[in-house]
Amino acid sequence: MDVMGHENLSVIVAETGWPSSGIDSGEVDETLLYSEMFLKGLFWLGSWWGW
């Protein structure tokens, strides 16, 4: 990324597993609402930490 002119760019890697309604029939399916909640929480956490 330095070669492309992005010398001081922080990179944050986040990993999550989404429910799939596989073995446990009580799992909650992935929805756009839960995806939105996760991303908003991740961005809030990033702003709180100064990312």
TrEMBL record:
Q: Which InterPro entries match?
A: Glyco_hydro_17 (IPR000490)
Q: Source organism's superkingdom?
A: Eukaryota
Q: Give the reaction(s) catalysed.
A: Hydrolysis of (1->3)-beta-D-glucosidic linkages in (1->3)-beta-D-glucans
**Mind listing the UniProt keywords for this protein, alphabetically?**
Glycosidase, Hydrolase
User: Could you tell me one molecular function GO term of this UniProt entry?
Assistant: glucan endo-1,3-beta-D-glucosidase activity
Tell whether Hydrolase is among the UniProt keywords: yes
Q: What are the EC numbers?
A: 3.2.1.39
GO terms for biological process, alphabetical: carbohydrate metabolic process
| Record bears the keyword Hydrolase | yes
The family assignment reads:
Belongs to the glycosyl hydrolase 17 family.
- Name of protein: glucan endo-1,3-beta-D-glucosidase
